[in-house]
Amino acid sequence: MITSDLTDEQERLSNTVRDFADTVVASAAYEYDTKRELPYDIIAHMGEMGLFGLPFPLEYGGQGKDYFSLCLAVEQLGRVDQSIAVTLEAGVGLGAMPVFRSGTAAQKDEWLPMLAQGKALAGFGLTEAEAGSDAAGTQTTAELVGETWLINGTKQFITNSGTKITRLVTITAVTGESTRANGSVKKELTAILVPSGTPGFVVEPGYDKVGWHTSDTHPLTLTNVSVPAANLLGERGRGFANFIQTLDEGRVAFAALCTGAAQGCLEEAVRYAKTRNVFGRNIGSNQHIAFTIARMQARVHASRLAYYDAARKLVTGRPFKLEASLAKMIGSEAAMDNARAATQIFGGYGFLNENPVARHYRDSKILEIGEGTTEVQLMIIARELGFDTL
């Protein structure tokens, strides 16, 4: 693990979360994965540790650190349980961060303290059946009637949207349309805060997913949902720009999660290869196994360097869109490749759900899809290089 470039404070944070992940999260991962339940006791413990408040100012109950610190915590959790890691990553990056970046003073005062302390979770309602990578396909509408937004539509694949501590979901909706010079229609997208329990806001039953069994993920239905006009998040019509910023930042923390997953598979493979004996010697003495693990180490190293670079550009105010997409793509492929390699090294034992590498094998595929597919990352990278691609 690369630590030489970290400050003493960052190393202490990383080591503290690593110890917590190994002693608390890892020991409960199989149980909660089997139950398909979010472990609220572990989430509460994470809140007490200040993990949900890492990048937020002290005035809002945060820790006064930065986004890089959040990434370090997410990486360590991702080593042992991706579901717990994404609960933190999405809770901060997609749930609380939009309020912090775009909210009014009143909105920040109302929502950030509970979110930063891990006493509440928030979701980010962007994806729809016809709108994911193509946000212009958004069908959810919001009409301003007097001093009230009237919202109708559906959302899908929304993380942290249906837990017993979810208090808020930010919804992107079409609030108007305009006609371009070429005759095409441009949708005005706006972000609006919808508190949980608002009449007409229904959290549908959770998905039966291949992996991330502990992570909370639901489709949402909004039928004549009324919220105050003051629940507008940011400027009207700036929803597209706001969620692009949210996704760019989120991809950096997501890349940290990917790195953690790849690291977790590497650690399990190294341990097993040194202790599993076949034909009188450990399997790691076979060149093929040793070289496979060496490639796993190379993937982890590249993935970590990529997200470190993106995170440092983010926190120092430099452009980081290209680096975020590179980190997300490199990290997700590293996680998937390492999960496949580790499962093969374990053989039959790697096919048992109680084995951490089996969970990583199931969990890691979504890393190449969530928060922008690999194809979307390639499109962004190509555009940053000057190619006008679709």
TrEMBL record:
Presence of the UniProt keyword Flavoprotein in the record: yes
InterPro entries, A to Z: Acyl-CoA_DH_CS, Acyl-CoA_Oxase/DH_mid-dom, Acyl-CoA_Oxase/DH_mid-dom_sf, AcylCo_DH-like_C, AcylCo_DH/oxidase_C, AcylCoA_DH/ox_N, AcylCoA_DH/ox_N_sf, AcylCoA_DH/oxidase_NM_dom_sf
Keywords, ordered alphabetically: FAD, Flavoprotein, Oxidoreductase
Domain Acyl-CoA dehydrogenase/oxidase N-terminal, residue spans: 7-119
GO molecular function: acyl-CoA dehydrogenase activity; flavin adenine dinucleotide binding
Residue span(s) of domain Acyl-CoA dehydrogenase/oxidase C-terminal: 237-385
Reported cofactor(s): FAD
Chain ranges of the Acyl-CoA oxidase/dehydrogenase middle domain: 124-225
Similarity comment text for this entry: Belongs to the acyl-CoA dehydrogenase family.
UniProt protein name: Acyl-CoA dehydrogenase
Species annotation: Glaciibacter psychrotolerans
Lineage: Bacteria, Bacillati, Actinomycetota, Actinomycetes, Micrococcales
